[in-house]
Amino acid sequence: MKKLNLILLFALGAILMVSCSDPKGGADSFKKPGGALSSNAAERVYVAPGEYDEFYCFMSGGFSGQLSVYGLPSGRLLKVIPVFSVDAEKAYGFNEETKPMLETSFGFVPWDDSHHPELSQTDGTTDGRWVFINGNNTPRIARINLSTFETAEIIEIPNSGGNHSSPFTTENTEYVVAGTRFAVPYPQKDMAINEYEGNFKGALTYVSVNPEDGDMEVAFQILMPGFDYDLAHSGKGKSHGWTFFTTYNTEESHSLLEIGASQNDKDFIAAVNWKKAEEYMAAGNFKEIPANYVNNEYSDETHTATTKRNKTVKVLDPADCPGLVYFIPTPKSPHGVDVDPTGEYIVGNGKLSADMSIHSFTKMLNAIDNKLYDGEAYGIPILKYDEVLAGIVKDPGLGPLHTEFDAFGNAYTTFFISSEVVKWKVGTWEILDRIPTYYSVGHLVIPGGDSKNPDGKYLVAMNKITKDRYLPTGPEMDHSAQLYDITGDKMELLLDFPTIGEPHYAQAIPASRVVPNNVKFFKLADNNHPYKVTNENETRMEREGNTVHVYMTTIRSHFSPDNLQGIKVGDVVYFHVTNLEQDWDVPHGFAVMGALNSELLIMPGQTETLRWEPKIEGVFPFYCTDFCSALHQEMQGYIRVSAKGSNTEMKWSLNE
Amino acid sequence: MSSKSRITMIAGAILLFGVFLFPIWRITLFAPQYPSGLSMDIWVDKITDENAMKNINILNHYVGMKMIEPDSIPELTYFPIVIYVLIGLGLLAAVIDRKKVYLSFVVLMILLGILGVYDFYLWEYDYGHDLSEMAPIKVPGQAYQPPLLGGKWLLNFYATSYPHWGSLFFALPMLFGSLAFFMKKSAAKK
Questions:
Q1: Does pLDDT of A340 surpass 50?
Q2: Probe site for chain A from B48, B49, B54 (most A CB atoms < 10 A)
Q3: Which of A307, A394, A459, A631 is deepest in the core (most CB within 10 A)?
């Protein structure tokens, strides 16, 4: 007994020793004194059960191709909206209705790399109508409807190599832009890669947005030299009418770019006067050239997407359009380009530079008026660096990438290499505060932080490296994000949470601008789907050759019909399932054995179609996948599949 | 004095049109899944809203209650006629302008009001007790009759039943009719 006590005592001692030598103790010494540990951080991010977050935060999914929706300040995941990648859960890209959404000039593309969400704006303020996001790999822009939180439209960008500097709206959502990250032959053709220099081109595309319904159209393209167009932001207030695109690889290197594209002391910010472009377009100063790109639109009336194919694009050549584009020299491969809320300052985040150069819009106009040029590149005037420069933030950190603003004249810049956010004063360029991120921050977001009216309060840093921040999950870790309070003089770390895919950029908006427009269910009376039924009496089967259309309904807690026969091996069966429910949050699922695609998840009032090709004879069950009611488990049915050429009568029934 | 009683009675008769503008009664079901409640409004000629009724029907079928189908409720067709007749009678009473006629109008309305509430009770009783033998959920001894007035637990639902604005427009003509009666009575005393 005594021996046992001794062992216990020893064990207790060991536990105490282990807890004292916390392996993270060393890392903690890098943390600033105070911060989350000594403050009431938990209280400030706590959203009580049943209460709502103050902000919606839309984070790009990066290589997931989707858009995730978080609540701030809680960091709770609210939804993942499928945009550029198929999603079997929601049948996005699997059901017949949404397949056209992922159609491109290359055919059906089930994936993309989505980078930059951008909220629609009215008078420079986020308005909560739509959020746009770019597809980088197969160049596209998507528009997500914020009343349904569903992808409403995707437009392909012609003659582009990779849509990175996109979508970045103008202040009344006149346009979203699409600058190519990779220069390509224009138009595309077979040619030697080492003949890149001078022959490859970069297109900057302006996509117009219909103010009524959001409908996107390629308005015009500007044919630019073969640089890499990295990021963009449009002007606001006094600089409304201009867009600024950063460039790298002005060296026009085509191989080993990490060295080749890092040689020039300065690359450019391309300042595009899009109001001027509109004048040139109106004057007919464009060329209409062959192109091949699609425009996919989803209708909430037919619950179906359609693809429109476009065969030409209107192009402006800066050489023929004086005053359309100017180059502002900016040190060392600038990444983000960010315009402060007044529209005066254009921040070039020179990612390989020791300092940050901030340009003045007023000085830029003056330099243009007085032709203060430092030569030209491919016919585009290069403005004198010193004549445009407003100021320099000295020794801010290493690897500046992106800047956002608050409403009090402060700027917040992320530093990838030194893994921190630095707060500095716009105008005096003095550094006010710095705080570490975990680890290697890319973009940051402040609600309204790239608009004329920042909503401030919080800053979210989105990091590229996670390492030891959370319980380990094997070699692959979700990316990490940190939430900081920016209401005080000093930034304060409040919360750390994992994110989906790789959030590049994000945008956040007060929930009060979004919630009032929320759609709770689709009205059955407004359903114009060609295969809809409005009640169980209309449910039926129809055969056309070897194609069978099943008009089916769901309501708690049964399918109508739930017994089907007369289907034969080799048939192509389309289940058109209408959810007759008219209440919030009562979707029904439809899953059938042997389906090679996905389930259906049908919202109230909606019709969705699953294609099914039975390969063998038998009787196959189908069932509801979304726990809909007390009798959900009973929501099931059978499909009899007979041999090819059999005489089994086509019959459908419920409760016979 | 006689013109005053006439005007009062005419006003009362016209106020009766108000029963067409508002529901007479509201039954609401509350449950954890329905935090803001499912409200069914009973009008003199219809039941709204359709979605609430649809959802109540979906829930009711679990315990074997009949579907609430406005088309199968004859009262919704003939009640409006009764109201029009009452308006006509009210106006007629104003033309005749006699104490006893006013009293008769008020008594008639009170009787019809009581009959209406009794009819409502019978419907509630029928829906709450006539349950299908095939009901998925059967609770021995449990009936699902909503309260006539006030609140009551029905399994997981808390049901409330209260008059709505339409009832006020049924009550006001009685008040105005009574006023007309008393005006006439006091005029006669003088």
A1: yes
A2: B54
A3: A459
C-alpha A216: how far from its chain's center?
Answer: 16
Residue of B nearest to A523 (CA): B51
Q: How many structural domains is chain A composed of? A: 2
Contact flag A556-B137 (C-beta cutoff 8 Å): no
Asked if A582 and B51 come within 8 Å (Cβ–Cβ), the reply is yes
pLDDT score at B190? 66
Mean pLDDT over residues B160-171, rounded? Answer: 96
Evaluate whether residue A198 is within a structural domain: yes
Mutate to test the interface with B, among A583, A588, A631, A655 (most CBs of B within 10 A): A583
Contacts of A581 in chain B (CB under 8 A): 58
CB within 8 Å of B66: residues ≥ 6 apart: B60, B126, B127, B130, B132
Which of A489-498, A580-589, A630-639, B27-36 has the lowest average pLDDT? B27-36
Q: Binning pLDDT at 50, 70 and 90, where does residue A25 land?
A: very low
- The C-alpha atoms of residue A522 and residue A303 are separated, in whole angstroms, by 10
Tell me the CATH number at A590: 2.60.40.420
pLDDT tens digits for A86-140? 999 999 999 999 999 999 999 999 999 999 999 999 999 999 999 999 999 999 9
In angstroms, the CA B162 to CA B25 distance is: 6
pLDDT tens-place string over residues B122-140 = 999 999 999 999 999 999 9
User: Are both A405 and A465 inside the same structural domain?
Assistant: yes
State chain A's mean pLDDT as an integer.
Answer: 94
The parent domain of residue A507 ranges over: 53-301+308-517
- Residues of A within 8 A of B50 (CB-CB) are 582
The per-residue pLDDT for A170 is 98
Please report, rounded to a whole number, the percentage of residues in chain A having pLDDT higher than 90.
Answer: 91
For residue A634, give the chain B residue with the closest CA: B136
Q: Which residues in chain B have Cβ-Cβ distances shorter than 8 Å to A628? A: none
Closest C-alpha to B120, from B56, B9, B26: B26
Q: What stretch of H or E contains A45?
A: helix A41-45
Average pLDDT over residues A606-611: 98
| Residue A15 pLDDT exceeds 70 | no
DSSP state of A630: T
Q: Among residues A483, A517, A551, which one ends one of the domains?
A: A517
Same domain, A529 and A465: no
Q: Are residues A554 and A451 in the same domain?
A: no
What is the mean predicted confidence (pLDDT) over B97-120? 94
CB within 8 A of A435, min separation 6: which ones?
A32, A35, A420, A421, A484, A490, A491, A492, A493
Q: What is the ipTM of this complex?
A: 0.86
Cα A253 from chain centroid? 29
Residue A288 has pLDDT above 70, yes or no: yes
Q: With left for phi above 0 and alpha for psi between -120 and 50, is residue A397 left, alpha or beta?
A: left
Mutation to test the B interface, candidates A582, A629, A631, most B Cβ within 10 Å: A582
Angstrom distance (rounded) from CA A139 to CA B157 = 53
Q: Which residues of B touch A604 (CB under 8 A)?
A: none
Tell me the pTM. 0.91
Instruction: State the average pLDDT over residues A38-49.
Output: 89
A268 and A330 Cβ atoms separated by less than 8 Å: yes
Task: Provide residues of A within 8 Å CB-CB of chain B.
Answer: 555-556, 581-583, 629-631, 634
Chain A and chain B share a number of CB contacts under 8 A equal to: 18
Residue A37 domain-assigned (yes or no): no
Domain match, A564 and A505 both: no
Q: Read off the DSSP letter of residue A384.
A: P
Judged by phi (left if over 0) then psi (alpha if -120 to 50, else beta), residue A170 lies in: beta
The residue from A491, A517, A543 where one domain ends is A517
Q: If phi over 0 gives left and psi between -120 and 50 gives alpha, with beta otherwise, what is residue A255?
A: beta
Three-state DSSP at A513 gives: helix
